[in-house]
């Protein structure tokens, strides 16, 4: 029993040692292979990750040129203020206050946070209670009534180019669209009237040449019925009734004279072309500012339609549009009734814009 116990004990340790010693190099080789494989895969991704990031930020840089990068919001605000100081509210195109303010709104809507550095935005917020976009919108609301008044003045002075430029700036703002459309129609009709006036001044020269002398030849055709064969045949047997036959021949010759040939030349007449031109305003009365609107510092405008009588007075005044409504209509009507225009040959309807602005 002891010999068997001694026989079984010794071989166990060597066998285990051999198994462990053999397993160690095999495990080490397997671990090394795994590490090598993992190491090979881990070295490749860094090269790919470092290559991809530069391409990602370059995409917005391509879109940025659509917005003028040479002018920031602060620079646009300064340019708009300078344009107001110089009187460039609506003109010239591309360099006026309205377009600068519209560009500020566009930049703010596209990138409200990235348009300016954080420090500059904090400084601007500290100096102003409104954002740049709100400031621009408020400025445009104040400029629209002035633009409408400017168009009215340009139309009364027949300055079509100035009226067109101001209307173009007003159309872009999107405010007072109905009034702007009516002013645009007035501009179109005024230009057409001027064009027709030029044509009318040039047309009377060729029309003034009547062709009346050519109607004189018809008497030769009347001589043909004079020698009829009936009169000559009646002559041989006319021993006694020769007198009545001559009397019978004479009446037709008296009825055929140029009574029918005279009317045609009188029909040729030159058609008169009348070009309607707006009468000139001789006396303008400023409207009274409503007390409630003055206390609340509300500004706006009213578009009125009326009829200019032959003596230049104004009648039938009515409101076409008002912004804001319910504040300035009564004062605008009272002021329009006191306007005086140059006398006219016949009554003429007109439209005007009355502005209410705090100085």
TrEMBL record:
It is a single-pass membrane protein. GO terms for cellular component: outer membrane-bounded periplasmic space; plasma membrane protein complex. One of its GO terms (molecular function) is energy transducer activity. Residues 215-228 have a biased composition (Pro residues). Residues 41-61, 194-272 are annotated as: Disordered. One of its GO terms (biological process) is protein transport. Residues 198-214, 229-259 have a biased composition (Low complexity). The keyword Cell inner membrane applies. InterPro entries: TonB, TonB-dependent_transducer, TonB/TolA_C, TonB_C. Its main location: membrane. It is found in: Cell inner membrane. Residues 274-359 form the TonB C-terminal domain. Pfam families: TonB_C. Belongs to the TonB family. Homodimer. Forms a complex with the accessory proteins ExbB and ExbD. Interacts with outer membrane receptor proteins that carry out high-affinity binding and energy dependent uptake into the periplasmic space of specific substrates. It could act to transduce energy from the cytoplasmic membrane to specific energy-requiring processes in the outer membrane, resulting in the release into the periplasm of ligands bound by these outer membrane proteins. This is Protein TonB.
């Amino acid at each position: 029993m002891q010999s068997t116990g001694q026989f079984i004990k010794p071989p166990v340790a060597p066998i285990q040692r051999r198994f462990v010693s053999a397993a160690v190099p095999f495990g080490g080789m397997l671990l090394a292979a795994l590490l090598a494989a993992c190491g090979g895969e881990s070295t490749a991704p860094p090269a790919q990750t470092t290559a991809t990031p530069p391409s990602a930020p370059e995409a917005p840089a391509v879109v940025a040129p659509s917005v003028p990068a040479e002018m920031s919001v602060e620079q646009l605000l300064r340019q708009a203020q300078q344009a107001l100081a110089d009187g460039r509210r609506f003109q010239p195109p591309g360099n006026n206050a309205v377009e600068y303010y519209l560009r500020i709104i566009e930049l703010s809507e596209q990138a409200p946070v990235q348009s300016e550095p954080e420090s500059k935005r904090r400084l601007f917020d500290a100096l102003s209670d409104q954002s740049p976009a709100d400031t621009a919108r408020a400025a445009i609301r104040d400029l629209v009534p002035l633009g409408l008044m400017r168009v009215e003045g340009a139309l009364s002075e027949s300055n079509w180019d100035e009226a067109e430029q101001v209307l173009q700036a007003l159309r872009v703002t999107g405010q007072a669209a109905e009034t702007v459309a009516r002013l645009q129609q007035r501009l179109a009709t005024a230009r057409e009237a001027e064009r027709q006036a030029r044509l009318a001044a040039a047309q009377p020269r060729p029309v003034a040449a009547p062709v009346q002398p050519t109607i004189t030849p018809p008497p030769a055709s009347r001589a043909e019925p004079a020698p009829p064969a009936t009169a000559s045949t009646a002559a041989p047997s006319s021993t006694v009734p020769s007198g009545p036959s001559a009397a019978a021949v004479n009446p037709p010759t008296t009825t055929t004279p140029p009574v029918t040939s005279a009317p045609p030349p009188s029909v040729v007449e030159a058609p008169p072309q009348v070009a309607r031109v707006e009468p000139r305003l001789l006396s303008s009365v400023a409207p009274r500012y409503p007390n409630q609107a003055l206390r609340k510092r509300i500004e706006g405008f009213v578009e009125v339609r009326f009829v200019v009588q032959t003596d230049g007075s104004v009648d039938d005044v009515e409101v076409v549009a008002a912004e804001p409504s319910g504040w300035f209509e009564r004062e605008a009507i009272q002021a329009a009734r006191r306007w005086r225009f140059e006398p006219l040959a016949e009554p003429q309807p007109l439209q005007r814009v009355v502005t209410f602005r705090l100085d």
